[in-house]
Write a structure and sequence with these properties.
two-stranded antiparallel sheet, 6-stranded mixed sheet, 16 helices, alpha+beta
């Protein structure tokens, strides 16, 4: 994570336990006499809180815990009023509450005391407001794309595990690509074997010719599909039955979700065409438009991380080890960072290792060289490559340069070589 920010001297500490309707506020001025307020989640109470804090005539430091999205409007309002904001991790709040009170009891007054304790000890981070830093639109694009993709997968699983086993189980063999919309278009036109076999083979070929998309041997594919439908073990239902109508509803929703997802991808690509960081991320192997959008939306400006280790910790790619006395456990990924960023870099690593001639592919090959068929070793290799992709992405943005797969040129003949290990700039 970003390094904790030390609290200023002689300031008023304000801890806010955020909720949906009413926020609990605990204030400790330099005199040490604490005050407790409750404010509703509305504009008049926001203004009352602002006036009370300004009346204290001291610098104000406000700390709060991220609570869904309910903290966003209040944090934005207080930030626009000029107050300094700190974000406190939920895990730190939970562990500190257990340590201070030796109890699992949880309530809003107790949470504000824990937040105030963490705020005063400096266990907090500067709040990075997406709207102020012009990342709100990117986050909404990325989040909407994620939700559409999630819903599309749910509908797809419903088609594959419910409707096809009932009405056309043999059709699943033709499904090879989750982005190929022709499959659901074909099923929408011919949802059951009866919808195919009611035509003669040549008539069916003419009816389905424009539906199945581009294929090398389209005539052979349609002939095989017709033969499969003739021998199907699916339930004998009519094409105009209520069950098939419901099947078509799900197929139509799947097509709509695919079209919506594609439109969001195109919109995001057009919106970021002039964004230099987006273009630099696109030069990385395995990073496409949506992964670049996700990285920018979740991390914001990568330059705010002074060192790549801080960025890796923000992603959850840092290593953690359990050690006690003579025992030392295996080092594992902490996974305490941003899960969406880890997912983006993991997908980028999967794409990069399938390409040829880049340092990510070489790192993966070196890692699994001792045992290429070991699945556990492959998983660890992909984790290492994903962390490297994140490290390189931070380096590209920080240095303002594009990715070059083989940056280090061979030294001229007769030149002295360094005794240290050779490394590739921006890629190691």
């Amino acid at each position: 994570m970003i390094a904790p920010a030390a609290p200023p001297q002689n300031c008023t500490f304000v801890a806010i336990d955020v909720a949906k309707l009413v926020h609990e506020v605990l204030v400790e001025p330099p005199t040490g006499r604490r005050q407790r307020w409750r404010i509703r989640n509305c504009q008049p109470d926001y203004e009352t809180l602002r006036d009370r804090l300004r009346a204290l005539k001291t610098p104000v430091l406000i700390g709060f815990e991220a609570t869904g999205n309910y903290h966003r409007p209040l944090a934005y309002y207080l930030g626009q009023c000029g107050f300094e904001l700190r974000l406190i991790a939920s895990l730190a709040v939970a562990r500190t509450r257990d340590a201070l009170y030796n109890s699992w009891d949880k309530n809003d007054p107790k949470d504000t005391q824990v937040l105030l304790h963490l705020l005063k000890t400096g266990v907090s981070q500067r709040y990075h407001d997406p709207l102020v830093h012009r990342m709100n639109d990117l986050q909404e694009l990325a989040q909407t794309h994620y939700q559409i993709s999630l819903r599309k997968v749910q509908v797809q699983h419903s088609i594959m595990t419910h409707y096809l086993p009932l009405y056309f189980p043999e059709a699943e063999r033709y499904y090879t690509n989750s982005r190929a919309q022709w499959f659901t278009q074909l099923l929408h036109r011919f949802p059951c074997p009866a919808a195919i076999t009611r035509y003669a083979p040549d008539v069916f070929e003419h009816e389905a010719w424009t539906v199945v998309g581009r294929k090398v041997n389209k005539r052979g594919f349609l002939a095989d599909l017709y033969a499969t439908a003739s021998q199907s073990i699916g339930l004998a239902v009519a094409e105009d039955s209520e069950a098939i109508q419901m099947f078509r509803v799900m197929l139509a929703e799947h097509q709509h979700l695919c079209a919506t997802r594609l439109a969001i991808e195109q919109q995001a690509d057009q919106a970021l065409q002039s964004h230099p960081d987006y273009q630099r991320l696109r030069t990385l192997p395995g990073v496409g438009p949506i992964l670049a959008l996700t990285i920018l939306a979740e991390a914001g400006d990568l330059r705010r991380f002074p060192h790549h280790r801080q960025f890796l910790k923000f992603c959850g790619f840092d290593l953690s080890t359990q050690q006690s006395g003579q025992f030392r456990g295996m080092s594992r990924l902490s996974k305490h960072g941003n899960a969406r960023l880890r997912y983006a870099f993991w997908m980028a690593a999967n794409g990069a290792v399938r390409m040829r001639q880049n340092t990510f592919r070489e790192k993966y090959a070196r890692y699994i060289k001792a045992d290429p068929e070991n699945p556990d070793r492959k998983r660890k290799a992909l984790c290492a490559v994903a962390a490297k992709v994140a490290r390189v992405a931070h380096g590209l943005i920080k240095r303002g340069s594009d990715y070059r797969p083989y940056f280090e040129a061979l030294p001229p003949s007769g030149a002295l070589r360094s005794r240290g290990p050779s490394r590739q700039v921006l890629t190691s």
